[in-house]
Amino acid sequence: MKKIDIKDYSLENLRRLFFERDIKKFHADHVFKWCYRERLEVFDNMSDISKNNREFLSKIFYFSEIFPEKRHKAKDGTIKYLFRLNDKETIETAFIPEKNRNTICVSTQVGCKFRCKMCASGDKGFVRNLAVSEILNQLLSVIDDNSLEKIDNIVFMGIGEPFDNYGNLCESLEIITDKKGLAVPAHKICVSTCGLVPEILAFSHDFPKIKLSVSLHACDDMLRDYIMPVNKKYTLKELTGALRKISLNSRHKVTLEYVLIRNKNMRDIDINNLAKIAKKITAKVNFITLNGEKDGLIGPDSKELEEFLRKVKKTDIQFTVRKTRGKEISASCGQLRTGETADER
Ligand code: SAH
Q1: Pick the catalytic residue: 55, 65, 92, 306?
Q2: What is the pTM of this model?
Q3: Which is nearest to 34 in space by CA: 51, 26, 46?
């Protein structure tokens, strides 16, 4: 019989699983607490469970693990991990320590289907969704590797499209936010999407307190079709319509991610359109200069950036400019995985 991975189940589902196997439901709470609060993954040492029960549990259940195959530390302290999964596939995770908080950036899929022009994540195509345990193990491995007492911030901005793996994303979020689990407050978590409208609406209902970022990157359909082909399925009108709907019902402002690409999306008309969209959905905008070069797309130089921001300041757009972290370690989505050669496998 194939053993069941404890880390694939939220507490509620683990209780159900234990109940179905005639194990007292409260033992699910014990195991859950040992795993996520105490970081203990051996049934043998779980002192509040009887020896018989521990033996029984270890016959049915196990705790999966992932180990970093590569670990690149940048001068600014950012650590990029490349994890090898059981089926030999790879994913990336970033740990970004800052003065007052630490952030972990996690992946949700192996590869990506959405093929955004500037993003390396889909370069090798889409392979598969990550299991709940694989999403969690990224966090747990970074916690263990850095002896963290807690995680301050989690961003779902690694490889893959979180909303294309909706079920496993939600189950992992249950565990991450559970007080008996990783106990990360919902408002310290941000999920970023390329713009899958049905899931955006479902998510704002299922997890109203978790922050939402939407990768916009262009403000007219022609340019967005080119930069983000997902726009052909969910147009700007549909996307901004959905975002307006949720902004009316939510306490949180949606963040619009806007990657700056030289000679593409930095025109005056883009600024005007962006101001209109941001106003319509009362969103904040986060500008990011394109990291690296891909298909002839590059970011602005500092002068172009300055000039662009000078114009943005004349509008009522509420914005931030994201610093590029870990540049020399290929810290943007999928860059480490793409740089890996087949020989290294
Ligand atoms: N699929 C999700 C989350 C993953 S990407 C999404 O599309 O939002 C996280 C963010 O990094 C997205 O805004 C993405 O567009 C951006 N990004 C991808 N490649 C980049 C690059 N080379 N430079 C800067 N930002 C990049």
Answers
A1: 92
A2: 0.94
A3: 46
